[in-house]
Amino acid sequence: MTLGKSIVAGMLYTAMLAGANPSFGQNAELTDIRAMIPADAVHFIIHNAPKPVTTAAFINADGSQIDLSQFHGQTIVLNFWATWCAPCVAEMPSLDTLQATMGSETFQVVTVAAGRNPLPMIERFFERENLTNLPKYRDPDMKFAKEMGVRGLPVTVIINPEGQEIARTKGEAIWDAPDMLTLLRKISQP
């Protein structure tokens, strides 16, 4: 093998190693935060760098349109769910408890019912499940969800105070578990 081919092969090997090992080349703080992800949150991903989010609107309970810019300055746990989605329904009580536990001027749980979820159906669901701390946002045409890269439900996106996506998970999670609360407190620190 010539020297040029050896250098190229070495560069390719290094690139493949970096892709196979998510902590390769990362700073220690990001590696430490990733180590805090609960063992049962197998699909929870913390991004290497913040990502932009959509400016698409979704609907408030009163029918008015809002977008994520209205939460600027807050860490947001943005959950996409539906009344007909069993894993979504299962995790809603833990999201409600998360909002009751950590909700503040700097931290909010934002739940958005994606697809056909009429407000009366959402209200009945919230009443039946005794959900008192979560908003009743909707995205009936799923434009907001699609622009956020949601391809199934539930999906939860963590957005930093600057309005950028920093983490994401697919599937059900236990949001009020002690180890998840510890992770979310760490992520939301200034």
TrEMBL record:
Which positions make up the signal peptide? 1-20
Determine the domain of life of the protein's source: Bacteria
Localization: Cell envelope
Keyword check for Signal, yes or no: yes
- InterPro entries noted in UniProt: Redoxin, Thioredoxin-like_sf, Thioredoxin_CS, Thioredoxin_domain, Thioredoxin_ResA/DsbE_sf
Supply the alphabetized keyword list.
Answer: Cytochrome c-type biogenesis, Redox-active center, Signal
Q: Where is the Thioredoxin domain?
A: 47-189
Identify this protein by name: Thioredoxin
User: Can you name the source organism?
Assistant: Paramylibacter ulvae
Q: What is the lineage of its organism?
A: Bacteria, Pseudomonadati, Pseudomonadota, Alphaproteobacteria, Rhodobacterales
